[in-house]
Design goal:
One of its GO terms (molecular function) is P-type calcium transporter activity. By secondary structure, the protein is of the alpha+beta class. It is built from 34 helices and 28 strands. It folds into 5 domains: 159 residues, Calcium-transporting ATPase, cytoplasmic transduction domain A, CATH 2.70.150.10; 54 residues; 276 residues, Up-down Bundle (Calcium-transporting ATPase, transmembrane domain), CATH 1.20.1110; 155 residues, HAD superfamily/HAD-like (Rossmann fold, 3-Layer(aba) Sandwich), CATH 3.40.50.1000; 188 residues, Calcium-transporting ATPase, cytoplasmic domain N, CATH 3.40.1110.
Amino acid sequence: MKWYQLDQQEVMDKLATDSNSGLSKTIADKRLKKNGLNKLNEGKNTSLLFLFLKQFQDFMVLVLLAATLLSGLLGEYVDAIAIIVIVIINSILGFFQEQRAEKSLSKLKELSAPVAHVLRDGEWVSLPSTHIVAGDLIKLTSGDRIVADIRLIKSASLEIEESALTGESLPVTKHVNAIPTNNVEYADQMNMAFMGTLVTKGSGVGVVVGTGMDTVMGQIADLLVQTKPQPTPLERRLADLGGVLIIIALFLTAMVVGVGVWQGHPLYEMFLSGISLAVAAIPEGLPAIVTVALSLGVQRMIKKKAIVRKLAAVETLGNTTVICSDKTGTLTENKMTVKQLYVNHQLFDISGDGYDVHGDFYVKNQKANSRLVEESLLYAMLCSHASVRKHNKKWVMDGDPTEVALLVAAHKANITEASKKQFRIIEEIAFDSDRKRMTVIVEDQSHQRFAIIKGAPDVLLPRSTYILDEAGRRPFSMKDNNKVETQLLKMASQALRTIAICIKPLSPGHSYDAISVENNVTFVGLAGLIDPPRKEVKKAIKACKDAGIKTVMITGDHAKTAIAIAKQLDLTRNDEAVLTGSQLNQMSDQQLADQINDIAVFARVTPTHKLKIVQALQQKGHIVAMTGDGVNDAPALKASDIGISMGLTGTDVAKESSELILMDDNFTTIETAIKEGRNIYENIRKFIRYLLASNVGEILVMLFAILMAYPLPLIPVQILWVNLVTDGLPAMALGVDQPEEDVMRMPPRPVKEGIFSRGLGVKIITRGFLIGLVTLLAFIIAYQNDPDQLTYARTIAFVTLIMAQLIHVFDCRSARSVFARNPLKNVYLVGAVLSSILLLIIVIYYPPLQQIFETVAIPPTDWIYVLCMSSIPTVLFGFVPSKK
């Protein structure tokens, strides 16, 4: 039902209610029983046990559990226990993160007011909001949280703040007249009030037309229930990697065991060797290292004003191709500011943004001042209910945003509250949405009385018969009118909201009625206001553009305002690159997807539109980051690849639906997070390259030796020790490597890019092949020199394999070349490598460990031989640059 199209009596008739007595208790109870309580459904509750068990469905977790079983079979109980601890810790963290996300709908419910003032059986009573039914008459006063969707039937200067629902920064003035237009978005339904919004000014009465899930808020709740969060690119890539590794592990285990038995090796020995290689093929420390790398990134991001609610989201942000940003509060200050003042046909530009009371006045880029500037701002201050005062060395603003902005501009002209005390307010004619103006009658210290009228220019200009100039009042000519109209058009083209200021001297005994006071007035000036862009945002948007990331503005504000801000931020220079909510309604999903890449601004949109935009971008292959602060943003935040909510102005619903929270509500924090995310992903690729190349070397040295009918170069316990020495600290140190200089000059990775793309797979195979080859070669040479010294030959192979991997780790720091970066700059890596070498020396030279690991002490000359062999893989490819 389009309630906004019906007049008041039609609404009352259709809902079978009475404006004088409301509903009877009997009828209300019947409707409550039929339609249910006025509350939002939370959807199907998920048990805590199911949430916990769900954490073990992850493929890499299953791989870890398999590795645990294999380690246990080998008698490596310490490794098995360590793996189990990692799995449980990861599962507990995931459990608490998911449990917290499930609370988003309950937070949505908290926006409903606990009680409402309802007309029942002819009496106004307070009832729980859950017992409100369609047809109830509700009284609204300033400060009330609206309990249901309401068609207004009475309005006295009623203003409602709807930013949590529509994204608009200013309170909306309401009226009671029917709106005959079809397909009016609820942001433009001025005769309606919606559940969850807040009355900021005035009073009114309305009849309930929708409760619970039948409200606009209910539609958002329904979207939230139906919207499924997307797996992150990192989660998808690690799942793919896990699948590859498990197949390789099973294949190689079977091959080694089969070939070894076929060549006459004992079955038990080959079975243990095969399992050892399977454990080597699966880098069981990988998820732990990924978690640590992400956790350290999260800690760095907290210091930079970004809170990450889900670890994998850090990497996702670095992979983003489009940022869908809310305008108000994110790209702009969320503080109305007077930017221009037009008096006596002279335009003054005013510096200073937001609620900063310091600023200067300029005419054509030259500092200037005028008595009329001071007078006009004094009149604006007198005709206002707002206040700007200093408290504990801080400026405190209170009141309507437009009036606050005018007072801040007055302070810039040194017009303060002290100036106001020289006048006495005699009478006030309140602002009304129909009148579009406010008037106060004041008396100065000489007992002269005059009226100050502030309001919409289209209302006050026709009532102006005089204009104020430096000499005083003079007749307001047609030429004057045309000049003012021209200036209004210029301000409108800059998306400035305009306020006209007029005065009227009053003789003793003059009537104070509106008709008498508000006609034949003297035009003083125009004020042009806007919610200005944040100063630092333009630079951040450019940095994102250089990184191949497109920024799109999505706002509930009007198209002219949105496109003007977009131009100031260099989001677009094209007026056609904007789509409105009404235009979106006429487009199919496919039509939107076809045009989506050419659109920079979406204006006058609803929650359904935001969700549709996100899904259209994803359909075109984009990874989408969506920012938002209101209830209206929650479904799109949840559906996007990474939802980013505002920490200062964001609702709890938005925060619970997001993966990243900006503590300072600043777009530039997103740019910082993107850089961090990209570096984390590159670091993950570095240690995957290192771990897998090392493991490939281990596998190949064993496989080739068996195929060539040589004894096993490594025994199972040595294979496990190699993993312990090389896979731990060095890989972890790669995870905290510093970003390369060009990390924010590279384009985003393709959405379907695999973990082994950009030549990573080739590097792993070639480096791994060489590591295995030089290890096997070192073993064969030592073995053939003295076949009776098998333990010595295995020790040489053992040391060569470990040193080759520890030298190779420095090659992994850059995708280009080992010499592209200073190898000593990552002090953690240097320390990790030295620690691994120390552990290797202990195993070789400490007699009790020699017996366990079947090693012998080797002379210094052998170390020279081993180091030369170990350096071959890195040195050979280190001089060959490759593309990043």
